[in-house]
């Protein structure tokens, strides 16, 4: 059985964000939800992650699933080092040595060797976000929910962040649901891209991308065409 949101209804202050809305998510892949600001993308993540309750509707396939999050802010524990933040989310069934070794491996994957003993206040914003990526994978989760974690970063840094994320994901293909309103981010990371309308939300278009992340070039003619399709869909 796949992951499915079925006949979802959710409103705030008399506004229907979702009205009989349905969407399925393939497991073991990265689904990007692209939509205008305020359309309810974060609300959907919170419903899936059981932070917010729907007014009605059914979520199937999510029962018993464990979640980890990557937010716009890194949300690291300020009193723990890089190594400590990553070890903190690991299973207590692991020995201290196993946690240390696995955390060190994640630190290498996001190119932060030499910074394991640093605290969040000593890191740049991009470095803190790399720690949050490593921490999300270090957590024993089935699904990673990403809520605009690249917002505010310039394109070269976004591309680097996507490289580090993809590097870990290829070794550990979790189900990822990634929310953004940035077309470039969606094209660089999403395996499936779903474009939402303004509320009440409907699916305007659904694009599947077969190319590996490292083979994606935004100046490539195919990606230029896809970008225009997505931009047009956002304007509906």
Describe this entry's structure for a reader.
Helix 5 (155-171) packs parallel to helix 6. The model has no long low-confidence stretch (mean pLDDT 91). The strands form two sheets. A six-stranded mixed beta sheet has the order 5-6-7-3-8-9, with helices on both faces. It has helices spanning 41-48, 82-88, 96-109, 125-138, 155-171, 183-189, 221-234; strands spanning 3-12, 15-25, 30-34, 56-60, 67-70, 143-147, 175-180, 192-196, 203-208. It has two domains: 1-65 and 145-236, P-loop containing nucleotide triphosphate hydrolases (Rossmann fold), CATH 3.40.50; 74-141. With 236 residues, the protein is α/β, with parallel strands linked by helices.
| Secondary-structure element pattern, one letter each | EEEHEEHHHEHEHEEH
Helix content: 25-40%
Please work out how many helical segments DSSP would assign: 7
Name the average pLDDT.
91
Quickly count the domains: 2
Strand portion: 15-25%
**Outline:** globular
Kindly report the CATH topology of the largest domain.
Rossmann fold
Structural class by secondary-structure content = alpha/beta
- What value does the Rg take, in angstroms? 18 Å
DSSP E strands, number: 9
Spans of at least 5 consecutive residues with low confidence? none
Strand order of the largest sheet: 5-6-7-3-8-9
CATH architecture of the largest domain: 3-Layer(aba) Sandwich
CATH class of the largest domain: Alpha Beta
CATH superfamily of the largest domain: P-loop containing nucleotide triphosphate hydrolases
Please report the distance between the alpha carbons of the first and last residues: 32 Å
How does the major sheet shape up? 6 strands, mixed
